[in-house]
């Protein structure tokens, strides 16, 4: 049986490119993972998500445990079969979304008790229960159950929360057990405080994980503060394991994170923005609802090979958005996911060629140029 492994092919500065091998297929890094919150990347068929170049999807433990429940997905053959995606899936631990979505939370050493945002029912989530749910989902990459303090927080609060997460990381590892072909990732916490990040990294390394996430970022601290942490945090984690930055981000966040040594990222942005009429392009964000597109026969991006750009005009995309037709969200989501995967492929090639700086300069120059002038 194929085991989970990570091979680094090349580095360029702190940027890295490699391959994560899993029994369900390879993941080329740097990798962007589209988010399939409730067993679907909204507005996309799984084969279309694959066609954009995605090697792996993210599933949300919090949503799936509430509806349709992990036990039901297990009875129906696991999440891959249930949602018709046979390639790797990473699941989060549920911790972050309990904090952001659920009501009436009670946090103790044992775990979290919360009220479902769907029907008000009461649930428990502990490191042990999170490992059980992610096993029932048959996730390929399992995340440790952790706590992310609400910002702003004092150093003392961040330290206390981080140490709780490190005790939960040990309990996650114990509950995960030995599952060949499946990986468990630890999550570094410590806010924006360097010595707490270091303490967290040491605690995780002494437990030992298949990969390591930089957690607690992309929670409203801003790009400058996030890059500030990424200037030192990835280097604290083992170089021979994948490094995952959770919940990032906008195209320039992604590029800046890869430049600082991140291998994997996920974000709802390309799919969520696609449903609200926002397209990410080489020249920045295009709001397709703007009247300037109403008579424009040109594609969103003439150099993009996605179906939205190959076969439809800006005028059509504008019309279906205004008419609230479902194809609007479908086409713009497809374009956005395609564009995000294009960025990843471009960075992988550039790192392999030792030309990341030149690629990055071109990326920023194209954005600075702005959208094509109205007709
Ligand atoms: Zn396109």
The CATH C-level name of the largest domain is: Alpha Beta
CATH architecture of the largest domain: Alpha-Beta Barrel
Counted up, domains total 2
Remind me, CATH topology of the largest domain? TIM Barrel
Bound ligands, each once:
zinc ion
Q: Based on DSSP secondary structure assignment, what is the total number of beta strands?
A: 16
What value does the average pLDDT take? 96
Please estimate the helix content.
Answer: 40-55%
CATH homologous superfamily label of the largest domain: Queuine tRNA-ribosyltransferase-like
The 3D shape can be described as: globular
First CA to last CA: what distance? 57 Å
Spatial order of the strands forming the largest sheet: 4-14-13-12-11-10-6-5
Structural class: alpha/beta
Describe this structure in words.
The strands form 4 sheets. This protein has an 8-stranded parallel β-sheet. Strands 1-2-3 form a 3-stranded antiparallel β-sheet. The protein has a 3-stranded antiparallel β-sheet with strand order 7-8-9. The chain contains 15 helices and 16 strands. Helix 7 runs parallel beside helix 8, helix 11 packs antiparallel against helix 14 and helix 13 packs across helix 14. With 375 residues, the protein is an alpha/beta fold. The structure holds zinc ion. Zinc ion binds next to helix 12 and helix 14.
């Amino acid at each position: 049986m194929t085991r989970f492994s990570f091979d680094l092919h090349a580095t360029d500065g702190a940027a890295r490119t490699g391959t994560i091998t899993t029994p369900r297929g390879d993941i080329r890094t740097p990798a962007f993972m589209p988010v399939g919150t409730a067993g679907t990347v909204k507005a996309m068929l799984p084969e279309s998500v694959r066609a954009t170049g995605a090697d792996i999807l993210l599933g949300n433990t919090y949503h799936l445990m509430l509806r349709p429940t992990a036990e039901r997905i297990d009875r129906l053959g696991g999440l891959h079969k249930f949602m018709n995606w046979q390639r790797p899936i990473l699941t989060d631990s549920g911790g972050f979304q309990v904090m952001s979505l659920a009501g009436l939370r009670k946090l103790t050493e044992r775990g979290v008790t919360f009220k479902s945002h769907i029907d008000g029912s009461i649930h428990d989530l502990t490191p042990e229960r999170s490992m059980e749910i992610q096993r029932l989902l048959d996730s390929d990459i399992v995340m440790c159950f952790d706590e992310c303090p609400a910002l702003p927080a004092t150093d003392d609060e961040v330290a206390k929360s981080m140490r709780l997460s490190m005790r939960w990381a040990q309990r996650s590892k114990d509950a995960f057990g030995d599952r060949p072909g499946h990986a468990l990732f630890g999550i570094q916490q410590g806010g924006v405080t360097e010595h707490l990040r270091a303490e967290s990294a040491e605690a995780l390394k002494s437990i030992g994980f298949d990969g390591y996430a930089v957690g607690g970022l992309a929670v409203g601290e801003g790009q400058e503060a996030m890059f500030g942490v990424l200037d030192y945090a990835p280097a604290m984690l083992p170089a021979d394991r994948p490094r995952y930055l959770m919940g990032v981000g906008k195209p320039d966040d992604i590029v800046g994170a890869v430049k600082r040594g991140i291998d994997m990222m996920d974000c709802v942005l390309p799919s969520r923005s696609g449903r609200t009429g926002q397209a990410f392009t080489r020249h920045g964000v295009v709001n397709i609802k703007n009247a300037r597109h109403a008579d424009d026969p040109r594609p969103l991006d003439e150099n993009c090979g996605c179906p939205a750009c190959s076969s439809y005009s800006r005028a059509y995309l504008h019309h279906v958005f205004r008419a609230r037709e479902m194809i609007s969200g479908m086409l713009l989501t497809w374009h956005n996911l395609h564009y995000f995967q294009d960025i990843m492929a471009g960075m992988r090639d550039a790192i392999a060629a030792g030309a990341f700086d030149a690629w990055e300069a071109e990326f920023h120059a194209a954005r600075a140029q702005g959208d094509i002038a109205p007709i």
